[in-house]
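step=encode ok
step=design start
structure_in=
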């Protein structure tokens, strides 16, 4: 009898904890609201999809800016933490001129990420145009960026938020 009572008690506690955990999960609308804070105001929301087939399921929220032809994607964990951010300017291209040094590009990046530790900084030529491909990290993020070597325009950015990963 004691074993049955203990088993029922354990089941009730597990069920209660599962309900409480599920109650803390964000829904699609909340995921959209969180993601919208990471993109420019006024751009179009394209989709919000839930990817449950991962170890740590997340919402994938996509946006598009018609004025700049830029795609944005923000991935939100069920707990509301941001998993990843990706931005891609579809009309942006490299340059035939190399005006900025790699140190100048690092300075541009450090304006947004002052504690960036650079792992990679390559000047790459693609179809006659040059771009800087960078990889760096700090305590909170791992990031890669593609930067125009003439203007300093960040053409593509991918950020993985290390500190938001569910345990």
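sequence_out=
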């Amino acid at each position: 009898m004691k074993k049955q009572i203990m088993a029922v008690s354990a089941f009730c506690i597990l069920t209660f904890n599962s309900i409480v955990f599920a109650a803390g999960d964000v829904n699609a609308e909340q995921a959209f609201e969180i993601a919208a804070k990471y993109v420019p105001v006024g751009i179009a929301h394209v989709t919000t999809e839930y990817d449950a087939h991962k170890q740590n399921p997340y919402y994938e929220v996509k946006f598009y800016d018609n004025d700049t032809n830029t795609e944005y994607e923000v991935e939100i964990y069920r707990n509301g933490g941001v998993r990843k951010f990706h931005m891609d300017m579809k009309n942006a291209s490299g340059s035939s001129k190399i005006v900025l040094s790699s140190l100048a590009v690092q300075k541009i990046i450090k304006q947004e990420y002052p504690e960036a530790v650079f792992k990679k900084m390559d000047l790459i030529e693609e179809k006659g145009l040059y771009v800087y491909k960078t990889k760096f990290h700090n305590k909170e993020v791992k990031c890669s960026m593609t930067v125009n070597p003439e203007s300093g325009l960040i053409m593509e950015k991918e950020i993985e938020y290390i500190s938001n990963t569910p345990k």
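step=design ok
step=annotate ok -> Helices lie at 2-23, 28-36, 102-112.
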